[in-house]
Amino acid sequence: MFIEYLPGETLLHRLDVRTKMLGFFGFIIISFLFQDPKYQLLIVSLTGLLAFWIKIPLQKIRGMLIPLIPIIISIILITGFTFAPERFDHVSSQTILFYALPGEKLGATVGGFMMGSTFIFRLFGMMIASSVLILTTSMDDFTQFFQKMKMPVEVSMMLTTAIRFIPTLDKKRRQILEAQRARGTKFNEKGIIGSIRSYIPIMVPLFINSIMMANSLSMAMLNRGYGLTRTWTSMREIAFAPRDYWVMSFIVLLITLSFFVRFRLHLGVL
């Protein structure tokens, strides 16, 4: 997931943060309504169009998905062998492809593999949708959103600061990794213990840097009078525009249509 704000003038950038949050939660609801991977693929494709619209670099998306390949294979195998035929409504999904153990034990079902594909598409959709939300929304807008939701100021500050500093910590991690490689540190030791031991030279400096950054941030906040008053002011107040009402109406209509397709037409199930 990308966590750095990407300035732009698209409609997504100009929408109110509350509209975008409604769209994000609407996406989650629609994604969990359908089990059929074909519907999930359609949802992911539409989300991908939004990512293409705001010009997310394709190489970064590829870099985000490649590390998930082992997880993808594991999920498909687990669901394929653990979802019993009676868990599915359609006969085609109840078909057993083969058995992993003698005596017709631990059968791999068509529906199980399809459900695994659904989980994968759902995971991809969540990653892309959350990236689109954060890339098109500034931290100031998130802070005001938390304030509108009557969230305590301390919690709001903690969440927005954590999100803001994740890219900084990632850059620190890459710098430490390159520095340790230049010193001859090897990161390809075999076994779980070996892998943990090989990454200690990264984690220790990263923790120290994190503590130093937190200390510097706290000193800067105190010097600027943070906590002196409970009244917060913003340079720009968030407000709904006509486009927000149109987009929210479309989101509600889309959610209603999804419920109709799922529960009245009984589509999107395995």
Automatic annotation (TrEMBL):
One of its GO terms (cellular component) is plasma membrane. It is a multi-pass membrane protein. The chain crosses the membrane at residues 17-34, 40-58, 65-84, 119-139, 199-222, 245-265. The keyword Transmembrane helix applies. It is found in: Membrane. Its main location: membrane. InterPro entries: ABC/ECF_trnsptr_transmembrane, ECF_transporter_component. Keywords: Cell membrane, Membrane, Transmembrane, Transmembrane helix. It comes from the Bacteria. This is Energy-coupling factor transport system permease protein. The lineage of its organism: Bacteria, Bacillati, Bacillota, Clostridia, Eubacteriales.
